[in-house]
Each structure stands twice: as C-alpha cells, then as structure tokens.
Amino acid sequence: MTTKRLPTGLTEVQAVYSGPEGNLWELIMGEQIHIGGFQQSMVLAEKAGIKAGETVVDFCCCLGAGVRFLAKNFKTKGIGVDGTAHVIEEAKKRATAEGVSAEFHLSDVTKVPLADGIADVVWGEDAWCYVDDKNKLISEAARVLKKGGRIAFSDWIEGPKGLSDAEADRINGFMKFPYMECLDGYKKLLVANGFKIISAEDEGPHFAECIQLYLDMLTKQLTYDALKIIGDNMEMMGAMGGEMVNMLEMAKAGKFSRGRFVAVKE
Fold first, then answer.
1. CATH number listed for the domain at residues 10-265
2. What is the rounded distance in angstroms from the CA atom of residue 107 to the CA atom of residue 25?
3. Which pLDDT band, with edges at 50, 70 and 90, does 1 fall under?
C-alpha cells in the first residue's frame, strides 16, 4: 500500500460538497451518494444486525440519506455528523420533508460532539476516504459506542494489487482524498481501537461495475444535466470523464476498490 498522502483536508471537502461537484455526484449516484445505493445499504444493515429502536450515528452523513434510510426501513433513532454546513442544512430539510425525526451535528468526525457510550451503531458509507486521521475517526466511533456496539461501514480503498504513488496521487487528487486505506489497514485500525472484526470484505468486481454505470450515465444519458451543473464547460466534462475512465481501469486491475466492514466493540 502506498503511504504517500496529499495535503487535502476538510476545507477542500467542504468546497466539493457545497458546490457543483457535490451536485454532480448526487446527479449520478442519487441522494445516498455511495456505491450500490439502497441495495448496498440494505446489505450493510443486515450484516450489522440493525434493530428497531437502536441509536445509529452516521459519521460523514452528507445529505442524511443514510440516517433516513435506516429510520424508514429499520425504525432506528438517527444522528448524523458531518463537517460541511451546506449538507447538514440540507440533511435537516430533507429529513423534515420525509417525516423523519433525526438530529444532525456540524462537526469534524475526529472530534464528535456526542457523549461517551450513547450509540448502538456507528455507520458510514463511502465517505471516510475523505478523512486524513482515520485512526482518530475510529477511536471516536469506539468512544461513542456502548460496549458490544457495532461499527458498520463501507469505504473506497486501495485494492489488493496496490497503487503506485503516481496512481494514488491521480485518484486522490481528483477525488479530494488525502489517502485511501486498504482492507488490512482498516482491519488493523479496528483491532487497535478495541474492535473484534465480524467481517471485512473487498467488493472489487461490484465496485468496477458501478463506476462503469456512472460513466455510462454521464456519457449516454445525463450529459445535458451534468453540463448544466458545471456551467456547460465541455473541457471540464471531458477531463472528468477521463478521470473516471482511469478509475475504472484501476478498479478492473484490482488496484482500486471498495471495502465493507462490520466489527463489535469489545
């Protein structure tokens, strides 16, 4: 695994999800803005054993779709945490519009404004790749969880074949990631923070299929809509398409992937 990191932080992520780039991701991925949408959320929830009445804290909740998904389908009590003011305000509006009672906090997920031991589950979907200090994020998850509570998350990761520094720089620079963990890296962080791993899975083939889907949507169906979001900038559209083709190639080669993890706080 490459250990090189880019000087990308919360400020850059806030810019993405407060502007046209975030709108573009929502266009092609839907409100959930993660690989596989509803179906993959359901898989994660079932693997985590989500039950009615449980308190679930979504770290990097973005527009709050994960909180709403769990509340509507599993009758959970939802709490969302995200460092971007725009998406927190949108999360509140959308929860109200859908009749979902939830609370949302504007905060860096490495310094969560919640008491110790208040959660049954800490949840995350394809967003922790934006966080530089992943160890601190997972330690915060452990802190807010009850003993026996679960952490359940998916994330974009370096694949089993590994990325060169140049390959990692290209993906991380385009996506505004400081770096990506690998499957074993996340497993080590979980164990170091007092978790017993229940499952840790690489979803490489499905990940590549979804990137192909998003590329097809941009080039075969939603081109007009995407151009409108980015001010009809054809040059930018072409550059973005090129970066997505590169990501697809890296995913097919086993260098770039998505992981899904469930673990229990001991």
1. 3.40.50.150
2. 22
3. confident
Residues 6+ away with beta carbon under 8 Å from 178? 5, 6, 7, 8, 9, 130, 131, 132, 172
Buried b (16+ CB within 10 A) or exposed e, 197-209: ebeeebbbebbbe
The helix or strand, by DSSP H or E, that contains position 47, with its residue range, turns out to be helix 37-48
Q: Cα(132)–Cα(50) distance, rounded to whole angstroms?
A: 28
> How many CB atoms lie under 10 A from the CB of residue 222?
17
- Residues 175-234 pLDDT 10s: 999 999 999 999 999 999 999 999 999 999 999 999 999 999 999 999 999 999 999 999
One-letter amino acid of 265 = K
Nearest to 180 by CA among 198, 165, 199, 194: 165
Q: What six digits make up the tokens of 191?
A: 């164990």
Break the chain into its structural domains and give their ranges: 10-265
Q: Are 158 and 177 in contact (CB under 8 A)?
A: no
Tokens of 177: 């990631």
d(CA 195, CA 147): 10
The string of DSSP letters for 154-194 reads: EEEEE-TT---HHHHHHHHHHHT-S---BHHHHHHHHHHTT
Return the closest-CA partner of residue 222 out of 204, 241, 207: 241
User: Facing residues of 200 across strands?
Assistant: 261
* Local structure of residue 130 (DSSP, 8 states): G
Residue type, 19: G
Give the CA dihedral 255, 237, 14, 125, nearest 10 degrees: -40
